[in-house]
Structure formats: structure tokens, C-alpha cells
């Protein structure tokens, strides 16, 4: 069956959806768009904006319209024969029916399998959506740090989740988050720079100075003299040595008691501070000079290192160490000066080498970072790929349980779908085999003779005795001939031609223009089959159409759906007439096609909306919002003509004189057509009215019924409570 038809950008249709039922009665006036629908159904491929959805793609679509006549039937000697099953083929027909039952059962099984598969696929879709959402949350959590690794997967949940699945067996090194961030900041840095390596500080010389014996050795004079023994006893060699400086400036007077000092004492003092003392004292001064030079160089080197622009390391941590060295150096200089002032004292310097050892430890770490940076630059491409793999390994590990659960669930569902697909495939293969058996059996017993006899029989019954169908010289073809055997050669009247073509179509529904395919399922589309037919022929055509509908309702001749289009009210009433059985089947639907402002619309009705032509005229003016501006004038005067001329009686002069002013002119315009002799409801004269004129005509139209004493009829037909 056809479940949906989208009509768009074709004729007067714009995005119109039509959802036909099993049996469809579709009424519409000429030019509203009935034939357009039949053409779209017959060949949707040439209408790119239209779509047709079918429940069964294998079903045949049989369309009767003008295109069908041009393609399949002409008043010539080459009409395709219609193959049907012969009457004497009971066994074959029973065989075919049995096989068709088997096909139907296989189809029902496959429908159940398709339903089961649909449920599984819905579960797969739900699992996919849940998994994609979970992975997307992870992506949002880490995208600010790992944007470079996620490149190409940032805009699609599906792609990102598929990437996570694809990395499930990633065997890259598993790093901590912080390590990955640090490597990312280095590897993906836009301006990557290669740095000169820095060196550790050699502090062996400083260590020697810190451990120098000169600092731990008291420096005193010659102790084995009498004067020396006294100084040693008093332990005042440093005091005496200072006194010597004052003695040089006091002209041999004691700088303390102001008494003269004899030269012997001066000689003994000088003997105490001999050359050995002077040499050791000189070593202290040399020590200070060397120490100060070494420390100054060390501090300058550290400060120079501190000023280097190496972004990958934090040189600011050296500031504290340099400050400590400077502070310790101040203390040590004080101690050294103290040693110089009091050479007999023992001093111990603050160890700066310990701080330098700490600095070297820091520098060693810096060296590793610089080496790592420089290696990365030399191998930047491979390092980037390596890091990206490590990042995905981290992401997978972060979600390993969710991925395992998802893979397990999806695997189960897909296995179920695969099993169902195998069953469907097997059933389809069985169906093809059975269909082949049916076609072989059809080919054995089908012929075109039965169709020819049936068409000629109906022609004769209804008085069409001047022509008939016979087998053409070419096998599988018909020709239309006169009784004397001569070809008709385009001499059939329009009514005769339309009647015989519909009989041809009617027989084709029961058979096929090919020797096989006779019993295939069909959708029947019939577009206005009674044009130019008189009432007797219209009656037989409507009876044949009702047979088609009954076959559809009862599941006969493979007819699964019927769509009947017509503009003829009498024909419409005939095919929808139900006799004593007035109960509608649920699958029988009624449709009205209207064209308003050059746009066609399709309205659905659960009950038959077409009563009479007169009722339809009133239907056109009930809804003011949807009145056809082109035909409303004709509609109004046709109602007046039909009711007052045939039913109510109308004194034209009296009616006109009951109005005044502009209303009188409008009334005269409406009823003047009646005097002009137009007595047929099907008159097609059109006058276009603007919205303001429509209101005037509708008002006067109502006043005519009121003034002539028939207002109750107006209210009844307009369906207004009165």
C-alpha cells in the first residue's frame, strides 16, 4: 500500500501531505489537481520534490489516466494483449493460490522479524545515544587541556565516541594527567625554541678554602723567648701586636703609660713577631683576597644564569639561593676580617658549598628539562603523535568500564539483528523461489483470449456492436476492428474510446500485459473514468469500479488499495452508494480537493461529504475565509437559478425592486444570468471579484432569500441555527 504522498513544487501543490487509506474516494472540480496526483503516483521519478512512501516496494501500481491511454492503448492494430488465467485451469489456480498463501505467510513472518529487528535497532540507537552522551561529557571535561589531541572529533558526538571505541586497545604509556598537561604544553607550544644547555657549578676550590687550615690555626710570635713566654702566658699576642702599630708613632714611648721604652724591650717585641709570624699573617690576607674573588665570581655567574630567557624552566627559584649565599658571604667576610684583626683566633666559615650543592641539584633538573625540550624539537612530529596516543590511552582508561559495558550490550543487540537478518534473507530467498514457481505455472496456462472475449461480451451487452477487439497478427497483441474486419483507424467517438479503454484497464487489473505477474499485489489508481460517457455507460463503469473496490475490501485479485478520483458528482454518488448496507468500513475514507488562490489543498472526511451538486454549491460559500474569488459569483447565481427557478419560483422584477441603491445593482447582476437562459448547474462562466465585492454580493445574496420569504432555507443550507 501507499502510506504517504508528498506533493511539492508540482502544479498547484506546495508541501501538501496526503496519507491515503485502503479505499479512497477523492472528489475535486476540474483543474483542482486530481490528475497531478495520479501522474506522481504513476512515475514519481520525474517529480524531484515529490515523495511516495510504500509499505511494500514489490507491489504493482496500476494507474488509469490520460497518460495510461497514450502509453498503452490506441485505435490501432498494436494494443498489448492482456494475459489472464484460463477458465479451464482450476488445478493451476489452486496451486497458485496455495503458493500465494505461502508467500503471504512468509511475508507475515518477515513483518514480525522486521518488528523485532526494529525493537533491537531502537535499543541500539538508545545505547549509542547514551554512550555518545557519556563520552561527550568526558570530552567537555578535558577539551580545554587536550584540544590538540581531540582535533577532528570536537564537533560530533558520534565521531568522538567512535574514536574512544577505536582506542580501546591503545597500548601507549599510561601517564598521569599532570604529566600529560606538561608534555602537551611543551609539545604543542606554538613557538618551540631550542635552548643552550646550562652547566653545574664547580665548587671544589671553594670547598678547599672553607676547609683551609689558616683559619683554624692561631697565629702567634716566637714563644721560646723570655718575652714570648710572658705573652703566651698572658695570651695577649694580638694586643701586643696592635700595640706595635701605636709604638711606631709614639717615638719610643709607651702608648699607655707615656714612659720611655728602652730599645731592648722593643728588640724583644720585634723578635717575638719574627718572619714566621709575618708569613702566616700574609697567608690570611692572601686567603681573603682569593676567597672574595671566588665568591664574587660565583655570585656573578649565578646572577647571569638567572637573567637567561629559558621559558621551560623556572629560574626564579635561584633567587633565594643567591640571597643565602650573599648573606653567608657577609658573615664569612666578617669572620675573615676578625681573623686578620686577631690572628690568634680560630674561625670557622659558614658553608656556602652546601647551598651550591642544592643549586647544582636544581640545575641538574633544569638540564634534564632542556635536554627533553631539545630532543622534542628534533623529533617534534613523532613526539606529537606519541603524546596524542598517550592522551587517548588516558581517556580510554578513564572510561574503560563504560566502554566495556557498551561493547557488550551492542554486541548482543547486533548479534540479534544479524540472526533476524539471516532469517529474513532465508525467507526472501524462499519467497523468490515460490514466486518463480508461480510465474512458471502462470506461463503454462495464461493467454490473451479470455480478456478479448470478456471485453467483446461487455461491448455487445451495452450496444457497442459496431466494433470489437480481436487478436492481432503479432502474437500477444490486440487490434480494434469493425464488423467487416477493417481497422477502426481513429474513427471511434470519444465516448466509445473512453469506454473500451476502461474495459481494457479493468481486465488488465485481473491479469497482466506480460505472461507472468498476473497474481501480483496491486494498487489501483483511477482518474475520472467517465468523461464523455452517457448515463447508461456511466452506470456500468461505476459498477465495474465498485467491483474493484469490493475486491480490495475482500482481498481478491491481489488488489490491496484503491484511489478513485472524479469530478462527476453523479458518478461519485454511484460508486459510494452502499445500498442496504450503509455501514462504512474503517479503511474507507473520503477526500475533497480544493484549489483556493491557485493553491490546491486535500481535506479528509470520515463520512461522505458529497450529497448533491446543489449541496456542494452551498459548501463553497459557507467558509468565507476559503471562498474561491474566481468562481464565487457563478456559485451564487447558480444557487439562485437552481432554487428559485426549479424549486422556489422567482418573480425577477419583484425581487429586483425590493432593493435600493447599490444593493439593487448587485441583485440585478446576480439574477440577470438567469434571464439569459443559463439553466445548467455545470455552467463554467467565471467572474473575478475583489474581497470587498464578495462581501457585497454575499450580503445581497442573503437578502434575496429574506426579501422573497425563503430565509429559513438560507439558514438551513448555511447550517446556521435559526
TrEMBL record:
SUPFAM superfamilies: P-loop containing nucleoside triphosphate hydrolases
A GO MF label: zinc ion binding
Coiled-coil intervals: 89-141
Keyword Nucleotide-binding: yes
Gene3D superfamilies referenced in this protein's UniProt entry, alphabetically: P-loop containing nucleotide triphosphate hydrolases (3.40.50.300)
Repressor listed as a keyword: no
Family matches, as InterPro entries: CR006_AAA (IPR026866), P-loop_NTPase (IPR027417), Znf_PARP (IPR001510)
Record keywords: ATP-binding, Coiled coil, Metal-binding, Nucleotide-binding, Zinc
Domain PARP-type: 245-292
Protein name, entry field: ATP-binding protein
Organism: Geotoga petraea
Amino acid at each position: 500500500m501507499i502510506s504517504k504522498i508528498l506533493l511539492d513544487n508540482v502544479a498547484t501543490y506546495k508541501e501538501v501531505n496526503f496519507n491515503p487509506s485502503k479505499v479512497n474516494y477523492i472528489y475535486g472540480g476540474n483543474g483542482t489537481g486530481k490528475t497531478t496526483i495520479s501522474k506522481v503516483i504513476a512515475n514519481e521519478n520525474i517529480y524531484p520534490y515529490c515523495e511516495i512512501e510504500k509499505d511494500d516496494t514489490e507491489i504493482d501500481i496500476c494507474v488509469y489516466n490520460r497518460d495510461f491511454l497514450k502509453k498503452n492503448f490506441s485505435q490501432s492494430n498494436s494494443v498489448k494483449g492482456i494475459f489472464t488465467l484460463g477458465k479451464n485451469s482450476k488445478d493451476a489456480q489452486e496451486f497458485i493460490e496455495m503458493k500465494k498463501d505461502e508467500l503471504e505467510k512468509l511475508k507475515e513472518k518477515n513483518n514480525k522479524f522486521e518488528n523485532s529487528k526494529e525493537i533491537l535497532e531502537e535499543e541500539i540507537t538508545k545505547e549509542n545515544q547514551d554512550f555518545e552522551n557519556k563520552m561527550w561529557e568526558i570530552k567537555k571535561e578535558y577539551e580545554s587541556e587536550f584540544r590538540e589531541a581531540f582535533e577532528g572529533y570536537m564537533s560530533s558526538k558520534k565521531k568522538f565516541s567512535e574514536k574512544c571505541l577505536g582506542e580501546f586497545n591503545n597500548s601507549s604509556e599510561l601517564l598521569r594527567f599532570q604529566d600529560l598537561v606538561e608534555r602537551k604544553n611543551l609539545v604543542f607550544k606554538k613557538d618551540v625554541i631550542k635552548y643552550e644547555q646550562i652547566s653545574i657549578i664547580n665548587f671544589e676550590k671553594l670547598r678547599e678554602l672553607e676547609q683551609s687550615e689558616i683559619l683554624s690555626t692561631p697565629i702567634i710570635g716566637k714563644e721560646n723567648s723570655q718575652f714570648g713566654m710572658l705573652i703566651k702566658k698572658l695570651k695577649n699576642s694580638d694586643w701586643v701586636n696592635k700595640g706595635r702599630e701605636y709604638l711606631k708613632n709614639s717615638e719610643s714611648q709607651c702608648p699607655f703609660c707615656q714612659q720611655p721604652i728602652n730599645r731592648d724591650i722593643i728588640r724583644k717585641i720585634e723578635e717575638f713577631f719574627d718572619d714566621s709570624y709575618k708569613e702566616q699573617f700574609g697567608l690570611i690576607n692572601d686567603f681573603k683576597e682569593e676567597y672574595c674573588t671566588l665568591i664574587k665570581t660565583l655570585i656573578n655567574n649565578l646572577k647571569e644564569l638567572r637573567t637567561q630567557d629559558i621559558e621551560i624552566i623556572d629560574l626564579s627559584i635561584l633567587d633565594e639561593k643567591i640571597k643565602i649565599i650573599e648573606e653567608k658571604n657577609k658573615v664569612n667576610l666578617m669572620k675573615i676580617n676578625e681573623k686578620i684583626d686577631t690572628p690568634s683566633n680560630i674561625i670557622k666559615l659558614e658553608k656556602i658549598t652546601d647551598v651550591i650543592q642544592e643549586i647544582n641539584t636544581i640545575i641538574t633538573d633544569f638540564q634534564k628539562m632542556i635536554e627533553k625540550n631539545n630532543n622534542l624539537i628534533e623529533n617534534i612530529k613523532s613526539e606529537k603523535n606519541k603524546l596524542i596516543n598517550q592522551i587517548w590511552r588516558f581517556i580510554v582508561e578513564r572510561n574503560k568500564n563504560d566502554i566495556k559495558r557498551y561493547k557488550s550490550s551492542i554486541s548482543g543487540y547486533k548479534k540479534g539483528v544479524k540472526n533476524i537478518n539471516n532469517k529474513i534473507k532465508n525467507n526472501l530467498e524462499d519467497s523468490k523461489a515460490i514466486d518463480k514457481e508461480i510465474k512458471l505455472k502462470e506461463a503454462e496456462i495464461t493467454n490473451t483470449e479470455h480478456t478479448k472475449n470478456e471485453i467483446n461480451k461487455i461491448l455487445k451487452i451495452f450496444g457497442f456492436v459496431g466494433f470489437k477487439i480481436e487478436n492481432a497478427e503479432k502474437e500477444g497483441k490486440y487490434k480494434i476492428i469493425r464488423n467487416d474486419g477493417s481497422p477502426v483507424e481513429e474513427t471511434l467517438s470519444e465516448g466509445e474510446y473512453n469506454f473500451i479503454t476502461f474495459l481494457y484497464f479493468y481486465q488488465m487489473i485481473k491479469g497482466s500485459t506480460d505472461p507472468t505477474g498476473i497474481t501480483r499485489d496491486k494498487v489501483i489508481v483511477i482518474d475520472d473514468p467517465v468523461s464523455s460517457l452517457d448515463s447508461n455507460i456511466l452506470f456500468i463503469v461505476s459498477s465495474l469500479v465498485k467491483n474493484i473496490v469490493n475486491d480490495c475490501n475482500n482481498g481478491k485479485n491481489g488488489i490491496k488499495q484503491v484511489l478513485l478520483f472524479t469530478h462527476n458528482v453523479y458518478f461519485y454518488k454511484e460508486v459510494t452508494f452502499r445500498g442496504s448496507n450503509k455501514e462504512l468500513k474503517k479503511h474507507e475514507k473520503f477526500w475533497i480537493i480544493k484549489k483556493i488562490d491557485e493553491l490546491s489543498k486535500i481535506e479528509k472526511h470520515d463520512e461522505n461529504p458529497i450529497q448533491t451538486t446543489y449541496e456542494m454549491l452551498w459548501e463553497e460559500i459557507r467558509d468565507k475565509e476559503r471562498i474561491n474569488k474566481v468562481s464565487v459569483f457563478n456559485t451564487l447565481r447558480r444557487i439562485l437559478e437552481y432554487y428559485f427557478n426549479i424549486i422556489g419560483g422567482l418573480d425577477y422584477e419583484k425581487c429586483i425592486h425590493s432593493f435600493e441603491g447599490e444593493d439593487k445593482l448587485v441583485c440585478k447582476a446576480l439574477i440577470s444570468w438567469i434571464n439569459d437562459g443559463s439553466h445548467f448547474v455545470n455552467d463554467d462562466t467565471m467572474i473575478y471579484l475583489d474581497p470587498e465585492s464578495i462581501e457585497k454580493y454575499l450580503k445581497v445574496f442573503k437578502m434575496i432569500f429574506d426579501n422573497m420569504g425563503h430565509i429559513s432555507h438560507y439558514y438551513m443550507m448555511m447550517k446556521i441555527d435559526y
